[in-house]
Amino acid sequence: MSTASRSTDPHVLIVGAGPTGLVLALQLARRGVPVRIVDRASGPGTASRAMAVQARTLEFYRQLGFADAVVAEGVRVPAVHLREGGEDVASVSFTDLGAGESPYPFVLAYAQDDHERLLVQQLAQAGVAVEWGTALTGLSQDEAGVRAVLARDGTEEVCRAAYLCGCDGAHSRVRESLRIGFPGGTYDQLFYVADARVAGGFREALFINLGSHGFGLMLPVRLSGMQRLIGLVPDALTTRAGLTFEDLRPSVEPLMGIRVEAVNWFSTYHVHHRVAERFRAGRCFLAGDAGHIHSPAGGQGMNTGIGDAVNLAWKLAEVLAGRADPALLDTYERERIGFARSLVATTDRAFRAVTGPGLGSQVLRTWLLPHLMPALWGFSAARQFLFDTVSQTRIAYHDSPLSAGRAGSVQGGDRLPYVAEPDNFAALASLAWQVHVYGTPRPDFAAAAERAGLALHAYPWTEGARQAGLVQNGGYLVRPDGYVGLALPGQEAEELAAYCGRWHLRPGQPAQ
After folding, report:
1. Which UniProt key words apply to this protein (predicted)?
2. Which domain holds residue 305?
């Protein structure tokens, strides 16, 4: 195999062009960071796989300017129906589930292949093309940077970069090359997934079909009318070679109360639960499924990977531009690995409880869920907790070295609360550090922000701001990803200056 050289090298090399890698590349490109993104596959995925796009992901996309396009192409899920024996036993509304808490107070279904296509287009508009059919075959690093060997069409090339990010999935070559452990396990149950056309027309709601010996989900795939079917393969069929949907039809249709007219895609899979021992090794990072995999409970997987990408991108950009201390990069693992471990533990408990073969799981499926869920739905606190958890707006970094202070009920590490009037999320499109004041800025505080190169956004004190947990005349230093770094109840100018000095933040300075 011959070896070629490349005249220009990127600052960041991304291995893996799924949603995590694409969002990471797009975030970096929008910030002017030279980036390459490669994937060993011949092209984008053609299966819908991950479906749910959560509110926090849409908020990140709003910063980049294409959230509305995603919403327009997806399907808003208006309700969830619990069914037993093909008949409804309970239903709850999902319409504006998180009204007032996010610009996107709903659950959105958006097929992953359509999602990836849109991200590839956005990345191309930013001047970066995915290099398909390109595999990582070698990796080494030193204090100066990373040396990656890439293979394409029988030719190897050496790519040198300041940093490398492994977004290459559960079987990550990057993780293996770095010899990072991936502890966890695999559930015994075999699952099926199918995209199918169902008699009776397209249904926008989520249907949870409960049975004493299993369960199945049905949700909308895309506006063209396909439905996603997910469920347990009956024990008697788990060892059958060449399993097809026709083998499952006699059990799936009665459980879900449907008749399948056509199947567009069908597969079986085992569910894993693993978290990498580290998310960083020197100048190399892991994100998405390369760092964590878990059950699909709650539609969290893809959104968590995108959250990794957003968290890492702005930190790499600031360090590469010389606008922050390199220690900023240490906070990526600190902030994201804790959430990944908590998520895997939570989804593991939920997954085992709902899918288990034991009597307790059968009682949960056939009695507790149908009776408890509608009852709990009557409480606004329960609805808010569910939205905050599933939407990922509840993710916070309170234990991060980047988080300090408290003003009102908002503390450093919280996502900036959303205030609709006037819209305080609009300013986040700058992708830059900024200061928010809800009330009247103090002159010394405004001067401190100006000296630090921070844009100051002053919002009127409103009832909406109070309900969001903000404090009148409080000052909030907001990170480029929309999280509060520093909360100051009295606009303490010296604390703002000290924070910027501690991290060597120079947000208003040009790249070095």
Report:
1. FAD, Flavoprotein
2. 2-73+109-183+274-346
